[in-house]
Amino acid sequence: MPSSSSRQTSNNTLQDCDDGVLRIEAARLAFTEHCLFDGLSMTLPAHGWTCLLGRSGCGKSSLLRMIAGLPVAPDASLSVGNGAGQPLNLRVAWMAQQDLLLPWRRVIDNVSLGAAMRGERADRERAMALLEQVGLGHTARRYPQTLSGGERSRVALARTLYESAPLVLMDEPFAALDALTRLDLHALAHRLLAGRRVVMVTHDPLEALRMANQILVMRGTPARLDSLDVPSQPAPRDPATPAMSNNHARLLAMLDEVAA
Amino acid sequence: MTRALGRLLLATAVLMVLWQLVTLAGVPRYMLPSPVAVLETLIARAELLVEHGLITLGEILAGFVCGSLLGVATALVLSRWQFLRATVLPLLLISQAIPVFAIAPLLVLWFGYGPGSKVVMATLIIYFPVASTCYDGLRQTEPGWLDLARTMGASPARRLLRVQLPAALPALASGLRMAATAAPIGAIIGEWVGSSAGLGYLMLQANGRMQTDLMFAALAVLVVMTVTLYFGVDRLCRTLMPWQPDRLREGGAAPP
User: Fold this and answer.
1) Which ipTM did the prediction report?
2) Are A145 and B243 within 8 A, CB to CB?
3) Interface touch A94/B151, C-beta < 8 Å
4) Among residues 153-192 of chain B, which lie with CB inside 8 Å of chain A?
5) Which residue has the higher pLDDT, B246 or B167?
6) pLDDT computed for residue A68 by the predictor
7) Minimal Cβ distance to A116: which of B144, B145, B162
8) What's the pTM?
9) Which of A65, A166, A232, B54 is the most exposed place for a label (fewest CB within 10 A)?
10) Which of B151, B240, B241 to mutate to test the interface with A (most CBs of A within 10 A)?
């Protein structure tokens, strides 16, 4: 079981898997009453977006939390490992549905939060450069509550990038945004996270089709993962093409169907 | 702000006039001195009031600082080591069932006739409100912030000091404001029970000698000190939390 204390010595396992794919094996989450999933595995390429879809309550957010080494439910028994039969011990960059900006830190200090949390010296130049990349250099000295929802999401993206962890985990990061802001952020996130390994949980099939290099659908009890072919165009894909509507219909059908 | 101040001054002036009218109606001076008489005493006995006032002020400030620090420290320790919660927290709650006034004579016995026992009294009276508001604040941290801190590799101590404590500051601020008004009570009670100096002592002496005007003057000094302490603490909390929007001023009572 990945515990918070074991996370401190986390960097090494990354190096091992940086040469190529990262395998997550034998993920199991069970409560006293029922088992959500058992023996789940997934292969994450060295870079590119893996989108995880599934109905509410299927355990996809829990799976993401387990990969991140975060506590799940108190009565859950869980285990997850890498291909070598060892527990996962990854350094990850985490981006949740809320932007989670700390209101008492200025925007620039929110970007470099990870350094403060590890007791390191903040690299202000890098934080500033990232803030400029998301187009918010002018807000560096402001407090987060003076920003709009879209701006706050972009700061959260800059903070995620600051972590420079090779595995980026996102739990519906753009769900709270309006449609147009979301499309902007898709393009921005795709550009800035190029070369990183991203796993994104989403409820929105179109979002998955727009962004993913790999789509995994989680369904059934206990749940299993099925992969779905993604459209061949490079991401982020235009949602208004016939190919996308076809795929959208297939994906919806897949989500609806009860797994055998 | 200036408008609110103006209204406050107007209301005070109206009360003063009413008070003066009541005393003019024939209430004897030893029962209720007129505001003018109190003002006269304030000026005439200024030296005495300042001398005793400074002693009480010192006790209040020392008690406020000690009680706040102890309260915050307790809250931090309880949050950091969860097993202490089951043992220390019930003890703390039970200790609150003991009225501080009841143990005041005991404190004088233990800590002496001087300022020590008064500081302890003020400390005790504000310790619990500060500890409990701070502890509640520490427990109500947005869980997402703690998740984020965990993924960044923050140690439990750092999560507590860098995430939970700043997040608890608004709750702590209301505890400190409460403490600012309660600390003077502790100091005065302590002085009543046994002392040879301070505003409480002065009031007790004046009361015994039917110098009601002096008692009112001492009371006025105490009120000014308490109000100043309250607003000082309020201002300090605001300065420490520049990100915290002032909801009262923004959305509160709109001027007619």
Assistant:
1) 0.84
2) yes
3) yes
4) 153-156, 158-159, 162-163, 166-167, 169
5) B167
6) 86
7) B162
8) 0.81
9) A232
10) B151
Give the integer Cα–Cα distance in Å for B187 and A236.
68
- What is the mean pLDDT for each group of 10 consecutive residues in chain A (260 residues)? 35 44 77 79 86 86 87 71 65 91 94 93 94 93 92 94 90 89 90 91 89 88 81 81 84 73
Tokens for A124, please give them. Answer: 């202000």
The packing angle between helices B46-80 and B165-193, to 10°, is: 140
A88, A104, A167, A170, best to mutate vs chain B, most B CBs in 10 Å: A104
Looking at residue A82, what is its pLDDT? Answer: 63
Sort out which chain A residues have CB atoms less than 8 A from B244's CB and list them: 103
Reported as type and span, the H/E element at residue A199 is: strand A197-201
CA proximity to A87, closest of A196, A171, A4: A4
Please check the confidence at residue B252 and state whether its pLDDT lies above 60.
no
**CA gap A127, A110 in Å, rounded:** 9
- Looking at chain A from residue 137 to 196, which residues have their Cβ under 8 Å from any Cβ of chain B? 143-145, 163, 169
Per-residue model confidence (pLDDT) at position B75: 94
Q: Which residues of chain B from 83 to 142 reach within 8 Å of chain A, CB to CB? A: 142
Distance CA A213, CA A72 (A): 27
Is residue B63 within 8 A of residue B126, CB to CB? The reply is yes
Q: Is A203 helix (H, G, I), strand (E, B) or coil?
A: coil
In order of their start, the domains of chain A are: 5-91+165-256 (3.40.50.300), 102-164 (no CATH)
CA distance A70 to B64: 40
The tokens 């099939």 sit on which residue? Answer: A205
CA atoms within 13 A on the CB side of A61: 14
Domain boundaries, chain B: 34-242
Chain A: closest CA distance from residue B162 (Å): 7
Residues 6+ apart with CB under 8 A from A228: A215, A216, A217, A247, A250, A251, A254
Residue of B nearest to A8 (CA): B153
CA-angle at B36, arms to B31 and B40, nearest 5° = 100
Q: Check A118 against B152: CB less than 8 A apart.
A: yes
Architecture label for domain B34-242: Orthogonal Bundle (1.10)
Give the tens place of pLDDT for each residue, B79-109.
998 888 888 888 888 888 888 888 899 999 9
Tokens encoding A169: 């985990």
Region of poorest pLDDT, from A54-68, A229-243, B38-52, B126-140:
A229-243
